């Protein structure tokens, strides 16, 4: 298993062994419970379904409670599926913790970015602003958006004001600086997507 679910706790900084101050994001990664094992013979592919962040079974709807009752009597806020090789060697109900990672490993972290609401082109796309001199009426407007007589329409995909954020983002090749096993905490160098308490997917990567 090379991936786990986690939760963003916040940011801080720590000193490395050579005395450098390193900015890190603190993640609570796992423990995750295997709620379903999918095999190629039955489902057409090998995968594990993991449950994270326990909640009372009474708060689940009946289909979800029935699904989780097959493997454990626990409820989970989040269920995610990860493709793995040799899934049949892992039993449903097993617990996977932060021990699968090591200090120095490179990981890809995916999550939902912070929602920014409706934003203009300057904040959303990095457009330049207009002159601020006397008489100018184009300070933060996007400018011309269309064409002349042909094709006489706004081209699809034009960068415009609109909703910003709440997109799935992945930050790649982040380094694990420290692991605190007592709290299932992972300290990763640099920022990661999302807000505090946001759910994240942490995956090992072999890319340099």
User: How many strands in all?
Assistant: 12
Task: Characterize the largest beta sheet: strand count, sense, and whether it forms a barrel.
Answer: 6 strands, antiparallel, barrel
Q: Beta-sheet strand percentage?
A: 35-45%
Q: Which whole number gives the mean pLDDT?
A: 89
Order of helices and strands: EEEHEHEEEEHEEEE
* Structure classification: mainly beta
CATH architecture of the largest domain: Beta Barrel
Report the helical percentage.
under 10%
Any idea of the CATH class of the largest domain? Answer: Mainly Beta
Shape, principal axes of CA atoms = extended
Q: Can you tell me the residue ranges where pLDDT is under 50 for at least 5 consecutive residues? A: none
Strand order of the largest sheet: 1-2-11-10-7-12
Radius of gyration: 23 Å
Comma- or semicolon-separated keywords:
single chain; 208 residues; mainly beta; Elongation Factor Tu (Ef-tu), domain 3; six-stranded antiparallel beta barrel; four-stranded antiparallel beta sheet; 3 helices; 41% strand
How does this structure look, described?
The protein folds into 2 domains: 3-117 and 168-204, Beta Barrel (Elongation Factor Tu (Ef-tu), domain 3); 121-164, no CATH class. The chain is 8% helix and 41% strand. It contains 3 helices and 12 strands. The protein has helices spanning 40-43, 62-69, 121-125; strands at residues 3-15, 21-29, 32-38, 47-55, 75-83, 95-96, 106-112, 117-119, 162-164, 168-180, 185-189, 199-204. A 6-stranded antiparallel β-barrel has the order 1-2-11-10-7-12. Strands 5-4-3-6 form a 4-stranded antiparallel sheet. It has a two-stranded antiparallel ribbon with strand order 8-9. The chain is extended and about 70 Å long. The mean pLDDT is 89.
């Amino acid at each position: 298993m090379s991936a786990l679910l986690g939760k963003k706790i916040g940011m801080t900084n720590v000193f490395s062994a050579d005395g450098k101050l390193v900015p890190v994001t603190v993640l609570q990664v796992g423990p995750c419970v295997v709620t379903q094992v999918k095999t190629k013979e039955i489902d057409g592919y090998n995968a594990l379904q993991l449950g994270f962040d326990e909640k009372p079974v009474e708060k689940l709807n009946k289909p979800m409670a029935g699904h989780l009752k097959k493997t454990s009597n626990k409820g989970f806020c989040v269920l995610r599926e990860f493709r793995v090789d040799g899934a049949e060697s892992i039993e449903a109900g097993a617990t996977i913790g932060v021990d699968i990672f090591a200090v120095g490993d490179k990981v890809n972290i995916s999550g939902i970015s912070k929602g920014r609401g409706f934003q203009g082109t300057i904040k959303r796309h990095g457009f330049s602003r207009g002159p601020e001199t006397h008489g100018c009426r184009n300070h933060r407007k996007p400018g011309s958006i269309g064409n002349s007589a042909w094709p006489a329409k706004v081209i699809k995909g034009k960068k415009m004001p609109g909703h910003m954020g709440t997109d799935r983002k992945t930050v790649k090749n982040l380094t694990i600086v420290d692991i605190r096993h007592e709290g299932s905490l992972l300290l990763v160098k640099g920022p990661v997507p999302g807000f505090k308490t946001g759910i994240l997917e942490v995956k090992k990567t072999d890319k340099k």
